[in-house]
Amino acid sequence: MTVDLGGAAAFLAAHDNFTILCHERPDGDTLGSGYGLCRILRAMGKKANVRCRNEIPKKFSSLMLADQAFEEQTVVAVDIADPFLMGAGVREQYEGRVDLCIDHHASNKCFSRLSCIDASAAAAAELIIALAHELNVPITKEIADCLFTGLTTDTGCFRYANVTARTHRLAAEMIECGADAENINLQQFETKTKTYAALERLALDSMEYYLDDRCAMITVTQEMFEKSGSNESECDAIAALPRQVEGVMVGVTIRQRTDGSFKASVRSRNPVDASLICSRFGGGGHKNAAGCQLGSNLAETKAKLLAVIEENL
Amino acid sequence: MTVDLGGAAAFLAAHDNFTILCHERPDGDTLGSGYGLCRILRAMGKKANVRCRNEIPKKFSSLMLADQAFEEQTVVAVDIADPFLMGAGVREQYEGRVDLCIDHHASNKCFSRLSCIDASAAAAAELIIALAHELNVPITKEIADCLFTGLTTDTGCFRYANVTARTHRLAAEMIECGADAENINLQQFETKTKTYAALERLALDSMEYYLDDRCAMITVTQEMFEKSGSNESECDAIAALPRQVEGVMVGVTIRQRTDGSFKASVRSRNPVDASLICSRFGGGGHKNAAGCQLGSNLAETKAKLLAVIEENL
């Protein structure tokens, strides 16, 4: 059943002993929203813990809370569109047992007993802020740090198409509640691991231009991962690089997996549709950001991809 | 004489035939504020043109307006802290003749007859929006595009320490007035010239780590400018790169000038003070971003700089 913010707030107020689930490979929005909600519930005198399949990345460690001891009664999922995103282990334990899901993905599978979804929100954190208002819980500096982290990370620092006037107004409110916006943004957007920096250098060195420079392509091989000491978990940002070059309508990042096969991340500028290109290889995504799996023969893979890109330019 | 926003608005309402001056090497704030104000004045039925010493960079061309023909009566400077920033030619013509300066730099020299300064504003565009309110001029989509450009460019897309709750609220208002935030941010922050991209690649290849990896240093030589086809006018963003690496407290970019001498841009993380480091070489700046001139002997220059950095770590 879907509920509005008032319904979700009433449910939270009426229950206790919460486990809050974040999605696997956690990002700033699932963690900021999860730990923000956890702090809100604790401020109401309730018991609550956050659960995530993976270790929390170091850059989010300041959001974390020590676990409380209690017998779990209520399960809330935050920023989880589909049960498989809970990840192995957590999914087996919690699928079919989620009481309330708070999310901003239009694709949410409504897998929970109650679903509070607002696809117009740029981040799940927008919904958590609204819930704090509904519940009349004052937003402390610690809560504001969590929720600002959600807002800024899910919008690429207020850069993406999902940002609305509301997103900026909520950011303003979090700053007034004490969020350390400067340092959160410095940590999230101006800090690379040394291994990622080394991989980025190799990736840029691999960049090639095609189709009258309207396509730029980066290739990341397993050899580059080994040489840089980097790995798949920290290389997502590379996909943005080839499209950044002026005149490039389609930026492609081809990444070799451990099994030797390749996957492509495609970023386009309007009017080129990246999801159309990727759909030809069984993949998909959004209009300007999509992906697909490719075979193990790099030269053949590139040639096929370039042929489809040329058709779509 | 300093005036508040009401005083500046009254002055604008009472005068006509405006020349609006932007600073040389124009950025998004001086141009967004200048062309935004120009549109506001024209919407009031007044005549107004924008004047800038340099050609307007292509990435700002959508802000521009065709000149009107009229006899200049009133001169307004926007985002200009010091007459020398008007640049050669413009300065000779206008120094001592500026009627009103609208600016957000604490360092403003109050060189105009009337000065309307608010150093708490992240961008001059914040003041122009406030003036539109004072003047009861509705903010059209075209005005909003100009002023959003000012807000976002002077804050590194809402990332820097100068951003306040007010900055975000004004961004929200500009989006509601029709500003195409997504495409403005794409153009300003996700687009590099091909020559800059080539220079960036060479610069990253030059990066060296010192002092237990707490200092990273990039060296940009004239040879790199030649090889990449880039030039000094488009290389400012490189200065941010070395500090981005995790654990780096001081990021240094050494750039060779056409005369063979070097200059250093220093970026630090708290508590390290970049301006203290640069002051030892006769330079200065802010706590986390400063610069200084160096000699022509690169090896000697690096060694001296590293010794001072080590003292300050």
Please describe what this structure looks like:
The structure is a homodimer of 313-residue chains. With 313 residues, chain A is α/β, with parallel strands linked by helices. Chain A folds into two domains: 5-189, Alpha-Beta Complex (inorganic pyrophosphatase (n-terminal core)), CATH 3.90.1640.10; 194-312, Roll (Diaminopimelate Epimerase, Chain A, domain 1). Helix content of chain A is 37%, strand content 17%. Chain A has helices spanning 5-14, 28-43, 90-94, 124-134, 141-154, 165-176, 181-189, 194-205, 222-228, 274-279, 298-312; strands at 18-21, 48-51, 74-78, 100-103, 114-117, 208-210, 215-220, 250-256, 262-268, 284-285, 289-294. In chain A, the strands form two sheets. A six-stranded mixed sheet of chain A has the order 6-7-8-9-11-10, sandwiched between helices. A five-stranded parallel sheet of chain A has the order 2-1-3-4-5, with helices on one face. In chain A, strand 1 (18-21), helix 2 and strand 2 (48-51) form a beta-alpha-beta unit. The longest helix of chain A has 16 residues, at 28-43. Chain A is elongated and about 60 Å long. Chain A binds chain B through residues 157-161, 163-169, 171-173, 175-176, 181-182, 185-186, 189-194, 197, 200-201, 204-205, 207, 209, 213, 240, 243-247, 269, and chain B through 157-161, 163-169, 171-173, 175-176, 181-182, 185-186, 189-194, 197, 200-201, 204-205, 207, 209, 213, 240, 243-247, 269.
